Structure formats: structure tokens, C-alpha cells
Amino acid sequence: SVNGGIKHILSIEAKSFLQMGKVVDHLHSCVETILVVTASDPYLVVTDCLELLDSHRMLDIPQLKYSTDELPYHNAYLRLTNTKIPFYASTNYEKVDLPIMLDVGGNVGWFSFLSVAHGVEVYVFELCKSSVLNGWSLSSNPEDNQVHPCLKGVGDIHGIQEDMFRINLRNPGSFSFLEEAAQQSKAQTMEGGKLQLVTLNALVGGQNWLANDEGSTATVIAILKVDVEGLKLKVLLGAKKLLRSHKVRYIFMEWKKTLVSQDWDDMCSILLDSGYELYKTGMWMGPSDVVMAKYADETELAEYMGDLSAKSKVLGHQ
Questions:
Q1: Which residues pair with 56 in a beta bridge?
Q2: Fewest C-beta atoms under 10 Å: which of 151, 204, 257, 268?
Q3: Is 3 part of any domain?
Q4: Which PANTHER family match (predicted)?
Q5: pLDDT average, residue stretch 134-149
Q6: Torsions phi, psi for 307 (to 5 deg)
Q7: Is 1 domain-assigned?
Q8: How confident is the model at residue 35 (pLDDT cuts 50, 70, 90)?
Q9: 43 assigned to some structural domain
């Protein structure tokens, strides 16, 4: 633990934040943040989804055709509401008692809106328009502007553009920028050509979240959730400054055996060097098992996490 005894958590296979309420409720009771939303960076302008919401409805989403009793994709979507209110960022120059969540790979917005329900300000990044159409159209308090969507990818170089590939027709959120994805037999090049990538360092820099002015209350990023298709290392590389600032208290990540060994070591090295420790692991239902051992070496930590990932695959959990 670092920074005054605050526990930093890395959770594996965090598919459902069953315990998030306790985490956020605690943070909500003891922190204040200063939110300064700026549009000075053209790459980080929050997306206005009004046109998308007006022109699409749930049954128009092609992925729903694959829904079955065993794979009920239609249940994974939050249905469209009749609201005409677009998503846009609020500008707050006063202190507010809302911690922040960064949802990298937001998909239909399940984790984002669960966080909002616990009083969190959410910044969510997602590239899949079908996910945005269904999930982000629902906000418990749209007039409060607690959800700030950005239709962009997150990587290690701010402002570049990359080709995006769809790697699994049956998974609405299975998109990747990795060149390896293009080599898969079922991979499809997405329409629209190149898509924009940003970094988390640029986001927090533009929001002035890393500043600690005298007399001000430090911004608290309660949760950083990362669930992207093989791009976790790039996300972490583009967030080094943020991670080393100790502003992020909890990290939730999905970890799969398919990653190459060097990527594992590099990711673990970034996390350990930034002061984080492995705290809980779990299957698709979320983190449940406390990790008693301490891993100070990235290779040992990567091997341990790889063994867990392989075991979960044998048991039928992805």
C-alpha cells in the first residue's frame, strides 16, 4: 500500500462489480473533487450522441440476431429510452463530492451506470457504436451530466489514428487495434477507416486532475476499469503519469492467458513500479479471493496471474 496507507487494488476478471457499492460509498463519504472540464484538446471533446440515438433503435443492432438461450445478448443491452437529451460534459468550477471512474472499454455501459448509481462521475471510452446506442442512452440523472462518453480508443500515443478490426461476430464489443487481430480468419475491417486514439495522461492533464494546489482537495479517481481487446499494455503505457500520481485508488482488469509473456511482464512492472499490489482475484462474477502473497517482482506476478488465467479457462470461464 502507498500514499498514506491507501490500498490499491488490481482485480482480475472483474466482470461484475458486486462489491463496488461498498467501495464507492466509502469514498463518497470522505472525498471531494475539483472538476474542470475543458475542450481545449480537440481529441478529448465529449461525444454528442443525440444524432445516434435519434437514428437507431435496439432492434436495428445486427448483433442481436445471435442471441440465444445460452448466449442472451439481448439481455446485455440497456434499452433505449425516449430521452432527447444528448450527452455532453458539464463544467464545474466548484468543489463537488463526487469521486471519478474511468471506464476504458465501456461496451454497453453496465459498469459505468452501476458506478453512477453510487454517485460517481464517469468518463467512459468506447468505440463500438452499437454498444453506445443501447447502453449510453440510459442515464439515471441525465441533467446532472454524470456520464461523459468519448467515442475514441485509449492507447499509448495521444492523437494518432489506427485501423480497427472486429474479431468476433458474436461479441458486440470485440474490437481491436492490434495488427494480430487482422490475421484472424474471422476478423473484419471496420467501416470508417482509421479511428482516433487518446491517452489517459492527456485526459487527466486536460482536466487538471493531477494538480495539488495549496488549500484545495485533491481529485480522487476511485476506479480505473480496463477491459480492452489485448491493448491493456498500451493503455497503461499511456497512463504512467496518472498511475504514478497515486490518484487512482482501485484498478479493475480482465486478464487472459492469450497475452504474450513480455506484455505480461511489462504490465506488471508498470503496476508494481507505480505502487500497486495484487489484492483480489475472481472469475466472471467478480473479485472474491484475497491474495495473501506479496509479489515485488513483475515476472513472479505475471506467472501467478497467468496460472490463474489458465485455470479459469480450464474451468470454462473467460
A1: none
A2: 257
A3: no
A4: EXPRESSED PROTEIN, METHYLTRANSFERASE, FKBM FAMILY PROTEIN
A5: 55
A6: -65, -40
A7: no
A8: very low
A9: yes
